[in-house]
Amino acid sequence: MSPSKRAFDLVVAANRLPVDRVVSADGEVSWRTSPGGLVTAMESVMRDRDGAWVGWAGEAGEAPEPFEEQGMWLRPVALSEDEVKQYYEGFSNDTLWPIYHDVIVGASFHRQWFTQYEKVNRRFAEAIAEVAAKGATVWVHDYQLQLVPGMVRELRPDVRIGWFDHIPFPPVELFAQLPWRRAILEGLLGADYLGFQRVADAQNFVRACRQLLGLQTRGDTVSVSRADDSRRVRASAVPISIDFKGLEALAKEPETRARAKEIRESLGDPETLLLGVDRLDYTKGIGHRIKAYGELLAEDKVAPPREVFVQVATPSRERVEAYQQLRAEIEGEVGRLNGEFSRIGAPAVQYLHHSYPRREMAALFLAADVLLVTPLRDGMNLVAKEYVTCRYDEGGALVLSEFTGAFHELHQAFVVNPHDIEGLKQGIMRAIETPDKEKRRLMRAMRRRVADHDVQRWAARFLENLASAPERPAPAAPSSRGGRS
Ligand code: GDG
């Protein structure tokens, strides 16, 4: 069988392929698995199945030919420079992202962006239809591909389609602003099963179907009834997680532990090392965190070198204007605090606008006495789960915003409302001052939760829900539905 004719029982589609293109010094091109949680999760479900992954390879222009890598068949989707600007940076990151995150910054609406979004979603759907075996399971990921379920259903009524939303699904009052709201809901309703991070996200979706499309809903299911398509679609919460065993093992390695010790020493062995790790994104509440910390410095409740605050801000979406503005604001504020409160050899805030290898992240988590996770809105926040996973020593304390998905699972965190700067300051101080014995108890409970609900369990639960989604009538033509029951 020629490579282009291969067909797979499991097809995953996400905006990005799970690999990055690496060009060596002598110009040789190879692919390296990208380290994200999604890749780890999918590896475990694809390992024993015949799986393909459809996604963009990360560079504008022609797509590479499909290829096999680490037991997965990768089917690249091409994006032109214009499509990257309009489908990805524009509609996905400057229209949908703000609307789905409480409009923390304003959303931009451009009809041309949506046209490109539709065009690219169709290209993904066609690629999926091309590689899916008869009756295959198709798992579509995230807000960039919301029209794909409906488009795949049109092309391939025989396959079973699931979609997972990594970010929040907004309340209907905000979602309703989107001029393309109907197309998006109808696109999603092409799926058999829709998974969300929180119960509230699933409920927001169901409510939007009722109020904006006038569809009948009952509990977590929406009834789609059209002349040619009559089905029930289930929408429920399956919170994502991380590879607990793999990350814990990395944290335990002598090299990681030695690096954690070295990090503390190079910071002057502070009594308390506070850490923030985020993509530099306005949803993450980095500004609120820095404001609160600045006030604690001004009130002399914290002072370097006794307390040191390290903020890792990973570069993100640097061509989108809101992100350029955010970077300027954060860096201005960090500069102001350091000017006022640093001493020679003892900066008040260590700000790092870099991306680090996984081991370095694990070492930072292991070194930090307090992790500050203060988003204004966040689908889940994997950093919080990674922190507790790395703390095999049961040390450390987690300050956690109630506007994250993680808040609904990690009940033993020091919970804060990041908009309430006084409350945030108190939360930080409680995390510093609570006796170690009590903090160990809290950490132990959080670790148990993540160990029991790891990413492998998440993927298995999603696929079970998809497999047991309500049956649908066989399509009239061209043949009856094959596939899984
Ligand atoms: C979206 C949703 C949801 C960060 N800097 C470095 C690095 N990271 C890793 C972290 C973590 C991941 O990136 C970030 O995940 P988050 O969950 O915190 O946030 P988003 O990127 O916004 O992800 C979010 C997630 O999807 C999954 O569904 O939780 O709510 O917004 O794994 O460790 N990793 C390395 N170097 C870095 O510098 N190696």
TrEMBL record:
Sequence intervals crossing the membrane: none
Designated name of the protein: Trehalose-6-phosphate synthase
Gene Ontology molecular function: any one: trehalose-phosphatase activity
PANTHER family documented for this protein: BCDNA.GH08860, TREHALOSE-6-PHOSPHATE SYNTHASE
Signal peptide: none
GO biological process: trehalose biosynthetic process
CDD domains membership: GT20_TPS
A Pfam match: Glyco_transf_20
One GO CC term, this protein: cytosol
Entry-linked SUPFAM superfamilies: UDP-Glycosyltransferase/glycogen phosphorylase (SSF53756)
UniProt family annotation: Belongs to the glycosyltransferase 20 family.
